[in-house]
Every structure is written in structure tokens, then in C-alpha cells.
Input
Amino acid sequence: MSHASILIIISSLCMILAAYVFAKIFRQPENNQQRSRQLDGLRGILACAVIAHHSYYTFTWREGGSWGANSLIIINLGAVAVSLFFMLSAYLHIAKIRHSPNMDWREFYLSRAKRIYPLYIAVFLFVIGVTLAFKPLNGDNFGDFLRFSAQWLLFQNTSFQGFQSHLIIAGVQWTLVYEWAVYCILPLIHMIYHRKITLQPAALIALALSYWIIMYHSQTRYFWLFILAIPAAVFAKPIQFLLQQFPRSHLILLILLTGYIFAYTPAYSWEQRLWLAVLFAFIANGFTYANLLNYHGLSKLGDISYAIYLTHGLVLFMWFGVWKMFAFKQGNFVGYVAHLPVIFGATFVLAWLGNRYVEQIFWRRK
Output
């Protein structure tokens, strides 16, 4: 059996068990009409895919020194997950703009900062502790440490004195650069859609920042993923009609399309982007994989997906890198994946704690 097959089977079992446990613990679903349960369920699955993806990358890194994989399916566990996360974010913010003719941009950016930064800073403080344990701070490297800290706060993948600190969290912070770039360009989209100009200082500053990020700190290919979420909103009615009229046909076709995307499309290629745009348009408008995405346990995993995204790398790094709970350099992949239930379980517990005692505390502050 291939590494990809073993990884997917074990990771799927971990996700199923976690979703079952979460469904039992959190019995009462949130009655929030503004949220789409299938999108929360999608978040939960994507977060688990990212754990599996980086678990394999950790194995190849510890075994041979390279951060990557030769299997297209394993690569796409990360690429497809990130792509759909980007599309999902764009779709939700487009919906907000369409239904909000009057936006308080200062309040919007404060809410985004309170959503993203508290847990990120908590994780960053942990990263600093680990980094300085390997590379002690002194007078000679203090300037480098300040630059290192500033780059981290701007979501840059950076090292300190040759120590690859970004891999402590599996290098996931790079995606937040694109999230913030899109947040910053939203005032322009709002002005175009509602045909009115805003001179709110927060909006003007954000637009200036969007230019700086897009021109100097990002790659254009990733922004297409946000743009390709637009068809999900524009063609909502015809897609919903198709879903209602041909339930069995669309189920078979979209399951086949999902398999094709993971197994045969190169990561972040135009082929993959376009097929994902089609798939996401159907999911956003009610496709649930025979009600799988509506399962309450997956929705609860989706609720903590950001915390999962930020903390799973910590668990992998500490378990295998600091505590050295597995002997590498022996090619024992089956023995390695036997640790995945611990990795998934510890990640979910840590993510729930981070969500409950860091994220939610700041969400509730006015």
C-alpha cells in the first residue's frame, strides 16, 4: 500500500473519531442563521487535510531533510485545502459586502484583527520560546531578533540565526498575508458594487496597504483563488436549481470531480483552480456530499479550524522534533503514522483550548 493510501486512511479514521466525539460533547448546534453548516463542515475536513499534509511533510523533513512530497495526492491535501479556504473566505466577504451598503471599515478591520491576531500572537510567543532555546539571545543577535519578530508579525516565513522557526508551525502563516491583502482591497470592491465612494480613513489606509502587499509581498497566482469564488455568488440560483432537479447525478459527478482534482491536477495550476471553482460553487449553494458536510461534529471542527491550522505544526514539532518520540532515518512510515492519532487528538485539544480561552475572549470584547 502506498504512503498516500496509508496516510489518507489513518487520517480519515482520526477525523471520523474526532467528529463523533465533538458531536457527543457539543450536542446543541448553534442556531445562527447567518452561518452555512455545510461550509463549517467543509472547514473541518480541510483542517484535517492540512494536518495530514504537514504530517507527511514532517516525515520527509525528518527522514531526508526536504520539506515536501513526491505524491500529488499528498501535495494536494495542502494545496486544495488552502485553495478552498481562500475561496470560502472570499465568498463570505463578498456576501457581506453585497448585503452591507454602509460599512464601518474601522470596525470591520478591528474585528478582523481580533479574529486573527490574538491566537497568532500566542502561538508566536511559543515559537519565540522554542527558537531561543535553540538559538539563545545575546547582544550580537538582538538586532536580528527584532527583525525576525517584525517579520513574524507580518506573517512572513522567516528564520532566526539559521534556525527554521517557521517550521515550528509548519510554515502556515504565509496564507495570512493573502487574507489580509483581500481584506484591505474590500473597500474598493464595496465602492464598485454599491457605486459610491468612501473616504473613511480606515478604508483609504487599507487600500494603500493592499497595494504594498500585492506589489511587494505576494504572488499573483494565489489571488485568483479569491476571484474564482465570485461565480458561487453570481450563479447561485441556477446552481441551486440543478442541485434540486438532479440530486443523484450531481452527487456522482461531484464526487468523481473531487477525486480527479486531488489525484490528477497539479497544485495551484489553472486546471485545478477552475475545477475547484466549479466544485466550490456547488458546495456554497447546498451540495453536502450526501449530507456529510452537515454532520454536527464536522461543523464543530470547522468552528475551531483556524486554531487547528495554527497549532497542528506545534504538536508535530514538539512530538517529533523536541521530545523525539519516533526514531527517523529508518524508512518506517507505518510506524510513523501510528503516531497520527496522538497528533490529531493533541491538536484538537490544543485548538479547542486556544479557541475557547484566547480567540473567544477577544471576539467578545467591544
